[in-house]
C-alpha cells in the first residue's frame, strides 16, 4: 500500500550542536576566555549604576504608595475603582539596562478603562506626590497603554488593565485598546513566571547583553523582550541556552552566548520550529508574534553575526569596537549585517533574506509604494 493518511503539518526541532558533541567532536578545544571577559565587561557597562537603580526604586515606591492608598480609600478617587497594582517589566526582573531608567506597573481597574480614567489616575498620582514633597519635579504624559509618570532621573509606566468580566463590555470609541489591555495582563504572567523560573544570574546577564545587541542591530529588533527571555531560558524546568547540556551541567556564559546565536541561526524563530512554546500560553509559539519576513530577517542577522563571532569579532558584536587591542579587524565597518566585512584572513558576507511574500501581498506593497511616492 503506497502513501498513507495525511497527518497534517508537523513542526520540527532545530539543530542544536550542544546536544551532539560526540557526533561533531572538536579537533582542538577553543580558548574562549577572551569572550568570557568581554561578556563580563560588557555586562558591567550595561548594568545600571546604584544611583540609577535607587532613582527608579524611589519613584516606583512613591507611585505605588499613592495607588495603594487609593485602593484602601476608594471614595477618595471617583474617576475609577482600582482592584490591584502589580510590578512588571525589566526592573522587576532585574534585567534593566543602564540609561533606560524605567519601571513598569500594571493597574487593574474594577471599572471600565476609559482614557479619562487613565489620565485622572496619572494626574492624581503626581498631585499626591507633590503634595507630600512640594519640591518634587514630576509630570504625567498620556499613552495609549495608560500613562507615564516622569521625573528628571526615572520614569514609571502605568499600564492599565481591567477585570476579565469587563472585557466583553469594551467600546473601541470610549475605552483603551483591547489588545493593549490584554498585553498588560500578559505582562503580569510574564513577570510571575520569570520570578519563579529564571532568577539565575547568568540568565539575567545574557538577557541584558542580548537586549543591547538587539538595540544596535536592526535585524534583531523584531524580537520583543519576552522572546529574548525565553531564548535564554527555554522549555519547562530547563534552561535551554544557559543551563542545558547532555549531562545537565551548567553552561559557561561564553558558551551560552554562542549557543543563543547558533539557535537563532538554525531557525529557532522560523515558522517550522517547534522549540519555543510560550510557557504562559502553551498553545502559542512566541515567533508567531513576528511576521514571516521578520522571522527570516532575525535568522539571517544571527547567521551573519555568528560568522563574525567565528572570525573573532567579539568586540564588534558586543559594542566594544572602540576598545584598544583589537587585532582582528582590518578596517572598520558601519554595519556588519549589511556590508561585507574583512577580517584577518576571511571575508564575511551578510546572509540574505529568502522570504518572498505571496503575489497578493507583493501587489498591495507595490500599490502602497506608488501611492506614497
From TrEMBL:
Q: Where does this one sit in the cell?
A: Nucleus
Instruction: Say where the protein is mainly found.
Output: nucleus
Lineage top rank: taxon: Eukaryota
- Keywords, sorted A to Z: Activator, DNA-binding, Nucleus, Transcription, Transcription regulation
One GO cellular component this record assigns the protein to is: catalytic step 2 spliceosome
InterPro entries the UniProt entry points to: DZF_dom, DZF_dom_C, DZF_dom_N, ILF2, NT_sf
List, in alphabetical order, the GO biological process terms annotated in this UniProt record.
Answer: positive regulation of DNA-templated transcription
Q: Name a GO molecular-function annotation.
A: DNA binding
| Residue span, DZF domain | 12-369
Q: What is this protein called?
A: DZF domain-containing protein
Organism source for this protein?
Soboliphyme baturini
Q: What is the lineage of its organism?
A: Eukaryota, Metazoa, Ecdysozoa, Nematoda, Enoplea
